Amino acid sequence: MVKLPSIHIGKLSLLLSVLVWLALLFVDLVRLFGIINEIESGISDEFTWILEIIFFFTLYGFYSYSIGKNIQSDFLQLLWRAASTGIFASGVALITELFYFSMGDSKLATEPFLKNFFYHVNFALTTIFLISSALLWKHLILYQKNKQVVKQWQAFEFAMLLAMFFVFFNKNNFDYSFLFGMVIILVISIVLSGNLKWIPYLTFKEKWKSLLFLFLILLSTGYLFSRLLVYTQAKNYMVNLTDNLFLMALFGFIFIYAIFSFLVTLFNLPTSSVFEQKLTEAINFQRLSQSIQPEDNEEQVLDILLDSCMSASYSDGAWIEINPEEQNAGINQLRFLDEATKEDLSELIKTQKSATEWASTDRPEMLQPLLIRLEHPRYESILLIPLVINKTAIGRMVLCKEVRDGFNKEMINIISTFVRQACIAVENHRLMNQAIQNERYQEELKIAQRVQKALLPAKLDHPDSFEICAFSNAADEVGGDYYDTYKLDDNRYVLIIGDVSGKGTSAAFHMSQMKGVFHSLIQLNLSPVQFMIWANSALSKCLERNHFITASIFQINIKEQKICHSRAGHIPTLFYKAKEAKSEFLFFDGLGLGILRNKQYENHVQEKTFTYEPEDILVLITDGIVEAKNQKGNQFGFERIRSLVEIHHSKSARQIQNQLIDSLHLFVGGDGMIDDDYSMMVVKFQHSPV
Amino acid sequence: MLRLEKTKEKQNDILSLFGEVDASNSVILDEAIQEIIASGAKSILIDGQNLEYISSAGLGVFMSYLEDFQEQAISMKICGLTPRVYEVFRILGLDQLIPIYQDRAAAFAD
Lengths: 690, 110
Prior knowledge:
The complex is a heterodimer of chains A (690) and B (110).
Chain A: H1 4-36, H2 45-69, H3 75-103, H4 107-110, H5 112-141, H6 147-170, H7 176-192, H8 204-234, H9 245-268, H10 272-289, H11 298-313, E1 317-322, E2 333-335, H12 339-351, H13 353-359, E3 370-373, E4 381-389, E5 392-401, H14 409-455, E6 466-473, E7 481-487, E8 492-500, H15 504-521, H16 528-540, E9 549-557, E10 562-568, E11 573-577, E12 582-586, E13 607-611, E14 617-621, H17 623-626, H18 637-647, H19 653-668, E15 678-685
Helix pairs in contact in A: 1-2, 1-5, 2-5, 2-6, 3-5, 3-8, 5-8, 5-9, 6-7, 6-9, 7-9, 8-9, 10-11, 10-14, 11-14, 15-16
Chain B: E1 2-9, E2 12-21, H1 26-38, E3 43-54, H2 56-64, H3 66-72, E4 75-79, H4 83-92, E5 100-101, H5 104-109
Parallel strand pairs in B: 2-3, 3-4, 4-5
Antiparallel strand pairs in B: 1-2
Helix pairs in contact in B: 1-2
């Protein structure tokens, strides 16, 4: 229901215009009848004029609707519509003329009613042709419109509106005021006729067609105009419909725009290939600048590049060569040349001094395309264009022409632009791939992180007679710190803490080796010092040349309340004695694992045994804690650890550990990062259950 | 930040270290020692009086040459370490393998 009005606007105005025309015809025929029979019909001329103006309006309404609905940017279709209407109107006019010519002086030929009828038919068709063409011209004029053109067109429409009503003012006399109005409208028409932006977009073939259509339009306009003049001179028509400023001005407008278009199209013919070329270049440019998808390959871009450059320079042959050390060295793009000719030309290019100098530049990003003349039977001029990606020349493009000096400045400019664009596309493509790869590495690292987390024990072996907790944090995704526990039997437990030199991935690998070594050797029931000797021997075969591991191992005998401890280059462990309310760092000689990779290691490691009491505390740490620096560059140091433990000795192992970590973070500063892996294990001995 | 300075004194090749040695620049230290060996030095003295910090990666560099030096009869000494840096050498046990002196004079005297 809602859609109905929009469907009917066209039909309604068409119906209305037909009715108005019939009314016009009827009125005029009635008047004619009155005059012939000398009866006063009482119908004034103004009544005809009013009907005529309504007819103009309804036609205008119909065509602006019907053209507006079918608007396409196909200029040829618009021109054809105008031309066909013109041909039809002219055809009818011609048939009428022929009819009267064949009648000669017969009675029918002088029959005023028939004459008047034909006059009205021709008037209607001419009006249709003029109004529809004017509206079609409107679309051409307003193609790629700007504000100024729209204003000019509005002024024109306003002038035409005045011209329609002009008839009331001058009663269809050809006087100065008529001439004045005509001149004004013609001037506006000429100004409007400067808007011919649609013409360059026609292809060569389309231009020929449009010339034909414009010629037909000009012809029909001229013929219809001449017919109207004949009617005017005949003076047989009681009210002259056609000596109307509106129609005359429309004739002028249609004719002027058609002639302008015709001439401009004609003179555009020779240059149309240039415009087409530029349009192709713009399209090629756009194709090149579209970034390549990661799954595409670079060869596609080079393929488009070569084709674009060849068409821009009318080259007779071309190829792209990629430097052998590049990742895409296999790319072989060759156009209109065989391999043998390519080899010949390459050899000839090598003999040119300028070309070898050009190729050996150390600043490829400054390289300009190089023009050379060749003594080759066929290809006389060669253009070398470097393909520079990320400041390195990955290769070059060679364009060949059969004529001497075949490349001009404009060609070289556009080719350089193409090449730059293609290189940017390739570079973006590479960056994109790199980013994807990086993302994959990140994923891999995350997996490594998860795996490594699993290497640290989730549950620490311990009896009820001591509490234990541990903590580890890596500076990078993965780290080289290690801690573990092992239950030898019901009374003996082993603790170990280790630190691989360096950090990151390499340290993480060595850390996993350390875990393997620990779990293998610990089952052999070795004493701590024996463990270190065997571990050194095993790790000597595993570790990289400049890597070592420091470790501290504790064998706790809960039955005897004894600890046997060996230290291999590791940061001394803090031992808090509750009875004396004092703590000390357990320091004695002990060389790191993997430093001395021979038997002599035995001389550099020892073990110490000591007893412990309930409430005593062991704090095993790695150097990341001691060496953590604050903003002033001071280290956290041993003394802070010692005093913190002494202050908080009464708390549980977990609380002491949290206290130490919190203090460490506070020391380093809010957003300060600890630049090393750091780990800690806290053991607190309990009163044996009674 | 690490800065290296190579000099010669009393037939010793002296490598002075300024700043910090950590994982990121231990390669530079390694290269410098290799250059000194390549030049045919038989006695190398590392002057560490301006060395503020050395990480385990830096210690790894010294450690990696121990066997080579023993085989090629090249002597390596370290002198002038600040207490903090000396502590690091001592904890790891490197002081048992590399002679460490108070200053250059003491190193030359030995």
